[in-house]
C-alpha cells in the first residue's frame, strides 16, 4: 500500500477545506501510482475540486507535476507529501476556441447585411467587400471545423476567466472593428476609394484570392501534419517534417499571417493592419516558445537550419 499526504500550497482552497489529508492506494507501489491517480483521489474526496482544477507539486517547489508521471518518477516515497493548488474554475480549450471563432462568424454578417443600422444608409457592396466577407467567413468556419475535428490539445483546460481575454482579440478587433471598417461606405461600389482603382480590378482581386486560398489550404495541411504526430489520448511529441516544416518550426502561423496579409493589401485598411500586427506578434511569441521547446526536447536531432516562423528571416 502507498499513502501520500496532500497539503495546500499556500492558502487552503475553498473547494477543499479538509486539507491536509492522506490518500491511500492499496495493493499499489510508488511506481504504479500516477499523479493523475492522486488527482482523482482528491476529486473523490472534494467533488468540486476536479482534477483539471488541481496543480500538484512537490513540497517547496512551484513546478507542476505531469499527470502521467508516477510517484517514483517525481521522487515521492510511501508516506511522502504533495502540495495542491487551486487553479480556479476551468474551461476546455476546445470550448474556448469555439467561442473565440464564433464571434466573427456572428458579427461580420450583422455588419455586412444591416448597413443601414450602422452607417445610416443602404450600401451597394463592392466586389472587394464581397471577397473580404467570404475570406473572413471561410477562415473562421475553417477554424471551427479544425477545432472540432483536427486539433489535439496538450492541456485539457484553461482558467475560465481567460476566455474573456482571449475572445476580445477576435470579437472586438477582427470582429467589430474590422467589420465596421471594411463594410463601410468607404469600400462600397460607388466609393471613389474603390471605383476605377486597382481595388475594383478583377485581376487584382483574383490574384489576392489565389494567394489567400493557397495560404489557407497550406495552413490546413500543416495542422493535419501536426495531428498525425499525436495519437489520440496521448501527449506524444515528435519532430514534424514535410510541407512547410523544412523551413520553419511553425509554418501554420506563417500561412495564417500570409492569409491576413492578403486582406491588408486588398483593403489597405488600418484596422486590418492593426489586427495583423497584434496577431503576428502573438503568433511570434507562441512560435518562439515552440521552437525552443523542440530544440530543448530533441537536441541535436532537431534540424538546425529551421527558422522559427518566417522562412529565412525569423
From TrEMBL:
One of its GO terms (biological process) is very long-chain fatty acid biosynthetic process. Coiled coil: none annotated. Keywords: Endoplasmic reticulum, Fatty acid biosynthesis, Fatty acid metabolism, Lipid biosynthesis, Lipid metabolism, Membrane, NADP, Oxidoreductase, Transmembrane, Transmembrane helix. Gene3D superfamilies: 1.20.120.1630, Phosphatidylinositol 3-kinase Catalytic Subunit, Chain A, domain 1. It is an enzyme of class 1 (oxidoreductase). One of its GO terms (cellular component) is endoplasmic reticulum membrane. Its main location: endoplasmic reticulum. It is a multi-pass membrane protein. It holds the Pfam family TECR_N. The chain crosses the membrane at residues 257-280. Residues 157-314 form the 3-oxo-5-alpha-steroid 4-dehydrogenase C-terminal domain. Residues 28-80 form the TECR-like N-terminal domain. Pathway: Lipid metabolism; fatty acid biosynthesis. It comes from the Eukaryota. InterPro entries: 3-oxo-5_a-steroid_4-DH_C, SRD5A/TECR, TECR-like_N, Ubiquitin-like_domsf. Its EC number is 1.3.1.93. GO terms for molecular function: very-long-chain enoyl-CoA reductase activity. The keyword 4Fe-4S does not apply. It is found in: Endoplasmic reticulum membrane. Belongs to the steroid 5-alpha reductase family. This is very-long-chain enoyl-CoA reductase. The lineage of its organism: Eukaryota, Fungi, Dikarya, Basidiomycota, Agaricomycotina.
Amino acid at each position: 500500500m502507498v499513502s501520500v499526504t496532500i497539503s495546500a500550497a499556500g492558502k487552503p482552497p475553498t473547494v477543499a477545506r479538509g486539507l491536509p489529508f492522506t490518500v491511500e492506494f492499496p495493493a499499489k507501489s510508488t511506481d504504479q501510482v500516477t499523479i493523475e491517480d492522486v488527482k482523482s483521489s482528491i476529486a473523490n474526496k472534494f467533488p468540486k475540486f476536479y482534477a483539471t482544477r488541481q496543480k500538484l507539486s512537490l513540497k517547496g517547489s512551484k513546478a507542476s507535476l505531469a499527470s502521467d508521471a508516477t510517484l517514483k518518477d517525481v521522487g515521492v516515497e510511501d508516506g511522502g507529501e504533495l502540495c495542491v493548488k487551486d487553479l480556479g474554475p476551468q474551461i476546455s480549450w476546445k470550448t474556448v476556441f469555439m467561442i473565440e471563432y464564433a464571434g466573427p462568424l456572428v458579427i461580420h454578417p450583422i455588419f455586412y447585411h444591416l448597413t443601414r443600422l450602422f452607417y445610416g444608409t443602404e450600401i451597394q457592396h463592392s466586389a472587394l467587400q464581397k471577397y473580404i466577407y467570404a475570406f473572413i467567413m471561410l477562415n473562421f468556419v475553417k477554424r471551427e471545423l479544425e477545432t472540432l475535428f483536427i486539433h489535439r490539445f496538450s492541456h485539457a483546460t484553461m482558467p475560465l476567466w481567460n476566455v474573456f481575454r482571449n475572445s476580445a482579440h477576435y470579437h472586438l478587433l477582427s470582429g467589430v472593428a474590422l467589420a465596421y471598417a471594411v463594410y463601410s461606405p468607404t469600400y462600397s461600389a460607388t466609393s471613389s476609394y474603390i471605383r476605377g482603382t486597382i481595388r475594383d480590378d478583377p485581376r487584382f482581386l483574383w490574384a489576392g484570392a489565389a494567394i489567400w486560398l493557397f495560404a489557407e489550404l497550406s495552413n490546413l495541411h500543416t495542422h493535419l501534419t501536426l495531428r498525425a504526430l499525436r495519437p489520440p489520448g496521448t501527449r506524444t511529441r515528435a519532430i514534424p517534417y514535410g510541407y512547410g516544416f523544412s523551413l520553419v518550426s511553425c509554418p501554420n502561423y506563417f500561412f495564417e499571417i500570409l492569409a491576413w496579409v492578403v486582406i491588408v493589401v486588398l483593403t489597405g485598411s488600418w484596422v486590418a493592419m492593426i489586427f495583423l500586427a497584434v496577431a503576428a506578434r502573438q503568433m511570434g511569441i507562441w512560435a518562439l516558445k515552440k521552437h525552443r521547446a523542440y530544440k530543448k526536447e530533441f537536441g541535436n536531432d532537431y534540424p538546425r537550419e529551421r527558422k522559427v516562423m518566417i522562412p529565412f528571416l525569423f
